[in-house]
Structure to design on (842 residues):
């Protein structure tokens, strides 16, 4: 099983995880990460899906999707949703 | 024109005429205002003339009774929505705010705020009815400027607004909707390590996207609750979603067709008149058409934010930046949702700086609600940061391009919001400028040269495409992406390349919300990347289908069929001695081999590459009048693979021109009552062709591995550098550092009257 380093922004962590920003989570896909975080903080999964953009190893994905694959040591950052013009 | 390197592609990278070219230049393209439908009523929006007022009462009875008037509505006719922030605020998903921006309820918050709407059989009757609407306003003190709006005892737009993002939460309300902070490293430690620290304040004015086509819509709601909307919009799926939400009708009941669009730049990614037209149509049982006048566009549609900023950069004598800090206060307009977060995240993004801190404030004020404008937020913070970068380079005696090269971000550089940058491309833009023959060209009296860079995330996200292989071998590619920049040509090029057929065989169209899968807005520089990926995926599915048809005709396994140069061929001589079957031949046999060949693909594209741009310009300043003339403008940008180089160049030129207007002449001018004095193109001065030299676009092609043809988003980042490039050039010309936009002649004259810095 692969382990991902997951980080939330301080604003998000203040609102939903009591200030905890960093997590090490066993996950093969982003779905696993979201599910694990939702288990720790019920309801967090929906907030992550609705309100964040995710960067996986530097690659930005507009919306977290269940299918995005992770590798051992993947860096996953949930950041506020980005928008263009 | 760029001589891009010989391509390994046959079609991608070429410059065919766009499919919408002939209709547009012959005046036949159908824009939002061109739709004519029998029985259509004239829709007119009644707007507040006050910057800030409480609505004591609205009496519409006399207006309703006027012969020829079919309906009059106010805010009370729209369902109300829960006060709740969800997701990306700037796209206004606090529907309590959205519905009040579409039509005011308790208060009007800006000159031009919609308070009522009329549907009548003619424009004249609608105007007569407007005069019969009696509105009792209690005029309130107003506030326009962002610093004024943040001041103690500023007039409050919302008496219960408590700033989010501050712990513990303030007890007193203010106009500050939100505070944001981002940091990496330790800026205090970083500044202590610096040999030189430069700190400066900057202000920018709100500027409008300036699209040449005002908003226009026609809505037809039928008695069974279903309806259709035609709209000038960058995102008809978003028009559908927002209108359905605001009117509380099922999304599936609405079909939205996008018209040709005469510019949007982000300003047409939201709704203003569509829900109003739909509600008037529902009430009258007839189609209703609303078109905005230019006056209304300026008064009541989102400009981007004005700002007040402070940037501080610490640097060692050898040119290494040790710390960077920025405070960015952005005007949100009447409702929260400025792009200040983007401003905070993009400000220092072109650079590898160990210690960074940015703070952002989203501040409401009595002007129209801000909307996205080309790389929203990033151009604003770039003006401040790239000006200070120039000041640092000058202070340590280093060439400004070399200074940026010394600190340039590359793949693996940590970003202020956490992740490491996934793609390079910035260094190449700096080197392109440095190697440009004009970079060292001599300058004359009162002339100066300035350089600046910029960054933008670029977008990905949801896009859909449908491909039909027609019986004669032509191909129709339908996507959900409104075409603002030549994307139909790009989609056709990518499809032609994938199929291996002639570009002239492929027709790309934009389909309505019922005819193609969900597609997010055309914006965020996402279409060539995300929708292009969907088109290629759909094409590949069609190719698999065509291989299957050939296998059926030859009575072999499909694994024995390959697709090359637009034809199905046996994979080897072992499969059999068969002549290739062209796409045209297979299309002609579609019915016999299983039916129409139609495929679809939908993607949620991610892993997009960001945009980097570096630009330099030469200016001449007339010391008598303060007028700045742009003599030369060179814009280098990493574009990935240029699918259609002419349209990539066009995007770069367009962004630069908008940046020039932002730098030198565009601003909102309010009178003491908070009413907009320059709501027209005569007095809101955008650059026109005669103001400018040819903008030279340098396309740097570093292919993006996450796109089938290497494309990167190109539409937006080019508006980030121009303001600072021009400010830096003016400083180089006259030895004066201008820190307030626009750098119009009175400001240049005032600077010349003062001592040099």
């Amino acid at each position: 099983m692969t382990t991902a380093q997951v980080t939330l922004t301080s604003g998000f962590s203040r609102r939903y995880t009591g200030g905890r920003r960093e997590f090490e989570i066993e996950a093969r896909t982003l779905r696993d990460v979201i599910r694990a975080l939702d288990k720790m903080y019920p309801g967090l999964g929906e907030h992550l899906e609705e309100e964040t953009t995710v960067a996986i190893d530097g690659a930005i994905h507009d919306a977290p999707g269940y299918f995005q694959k992770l590798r051992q040591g993947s860096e996953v950052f949930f950041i506020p949703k980005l928008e263009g013009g | 024109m760029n001589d891009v390197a010989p391509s390994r592609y046959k079609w991608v990278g070429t410059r065919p005429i766009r499919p919408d070219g002939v209709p547009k230049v012959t005046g036949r393209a159908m824009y939002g205002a061109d739709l004519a439908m029998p029985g259509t009523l004239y829709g007119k929006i009644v707007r507040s003339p006050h910057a800030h007022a409480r609505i004591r009462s609205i009496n519409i009875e006399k207006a309703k009774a006027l012969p020829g008037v079919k309906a009059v509505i106010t805010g009370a006719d729209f369902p109300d929505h829960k006060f709740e922030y969800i997701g990306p605020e700037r796209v206004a998903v606090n529907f309590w705010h959205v519905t009040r921006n579409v039509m005011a309820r308790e208060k009007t918050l800006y000159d031009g705020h919609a308070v009522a709407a009329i549907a009548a059989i003619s424009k004249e009757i609608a105007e007569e009815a407007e005069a019969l609407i009696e509105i009792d306003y209690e005029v309130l003190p107003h506030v326009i400027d962002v610093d004024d709006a943040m001041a103690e005892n500023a007039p409050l737009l919302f008496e219960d607004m408590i700033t989010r993002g501050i712990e513990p939460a303030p007890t007193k309300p203010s106009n500050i909707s939100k505070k944001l902070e981002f940091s990496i490293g330790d800026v205090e430690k970083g500044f202590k390590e610096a040999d030189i620290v430069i700190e400066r304040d900057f202000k920018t004015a709100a500027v409008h996207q300036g699209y040449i086509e005002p908003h226009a819509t026609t809505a037809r709601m039928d008695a069974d609750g279903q309806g259709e909307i035609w709209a000038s919009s960058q995102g008809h799926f978003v028009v559908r979603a927002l209108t359905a939400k605001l009117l509380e009708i099922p999304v599936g009941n609405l079909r939205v067709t996008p018209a040709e669009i005469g510019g949007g730049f982000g300003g047409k990614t939201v709704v203003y008149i569509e829900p109003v037209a739909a509600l008037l149509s529902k009430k009258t049982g007839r189609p209703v058409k609303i078109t905005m006048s230019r006056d209304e566009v300026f008064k009541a549609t989102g400009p981007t934010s004005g700002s007040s900023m402070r940037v501080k950069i610490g640097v060692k004598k050898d040119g290494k930046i040790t710390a960077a800090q920025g405070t960015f206060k952005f005007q949100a307009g009447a409702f929260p949702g400025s792009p200040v977060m983007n401003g905070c995240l993009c400000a220092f993004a072109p650079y590898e700086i160990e210690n960074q801190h940015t703070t952002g404030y989203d501040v409401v004020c009595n002007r129209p609600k801000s909307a996205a404008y080309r790389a929203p937020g990033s151009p604003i913070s770039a003006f401040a940061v790239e000006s200070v970068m120039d000041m640092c380079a000058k202070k340590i005696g280093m060439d400004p391009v070399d200074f940026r090269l010394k600190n340039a971000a590359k793949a693996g550089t940590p970003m202020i919001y956490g992740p490491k940058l996934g793609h390079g491309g910035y260094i190449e833009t700096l080197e392109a400028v440095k190697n440009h023959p004009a970079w060292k060209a001599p300058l004359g009296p009162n002339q100066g040269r300035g350089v600046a860079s910029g960054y933008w995330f670029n977008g990905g996200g949801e896009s859909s495409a449908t491909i039909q292989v027609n019986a004669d071998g032509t191909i129709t590619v339908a996507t959900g992406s409104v075409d603002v920049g030549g994307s139909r040509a790009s989609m056709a090029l990518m499809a032609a390349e994938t199929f291996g057929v002639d570009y002239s065989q492929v027709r790309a169209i934009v389909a309505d919300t019922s005819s193609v899968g969900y597609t997010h807005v055309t914006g965020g520089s996402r279409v060539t990347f995300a929708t292009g990926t969907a088109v290629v995926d759909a094409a590949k599915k069609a190719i698999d289908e065509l291989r299957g048809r050939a296998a059926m005709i030859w009575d072999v396994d499909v694994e024995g069929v390959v697709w090359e140069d637009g034809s199905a061929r046996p994979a080897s001589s072992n499969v059999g001695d068969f002549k290739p079957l062209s796409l045209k031949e297979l299309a002609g046999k579609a019915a016999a081999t299983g039916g129409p060949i139609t495929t679809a693909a939908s993607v949620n594209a991610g892993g997009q590459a960001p945009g980097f741009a570096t630009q330099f310009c030469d200016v001449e300043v007339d010391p008598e009048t303060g007028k700045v003339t742009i003599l030369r403008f060179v814009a280098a940008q990493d574009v990935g693979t240029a699918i259609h180089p002419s349209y990539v160049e066009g995007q770069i030129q367009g962004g630069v021109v908008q940046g020039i207007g932002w730098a030198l002449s565009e601003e909102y001018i309010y009178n003491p009552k908070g009413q907009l004095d320059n709501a027209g193109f005569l007095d809101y001065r955008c650059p026109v062709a005669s103001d400018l030299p040819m903008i030279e676009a340098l396309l740097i092609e570093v292919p993006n591995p996450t796109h089938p043809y290497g494309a990167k988003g190109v539409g937006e980042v080019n508006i980030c550098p121009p303001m600072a490039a021009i400010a830096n050039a003016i400083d180089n010309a006259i030895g004066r550092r201008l820190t307030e936009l626009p750098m119009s002649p009175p400001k240049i004259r005032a600077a010349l009257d003062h001592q040099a810095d």
Observations:
- The CA atoms of residues 51 and 78 of chain A lie 9 Å apart.
- Chain A touches chain B at residues 7, 9-11, 14, 50-51, 55-63, 65, 68, 75, 77, 79-85 (CB under 8 Å).
- The two ends of chain A are 40 Å apart (CA to CA).
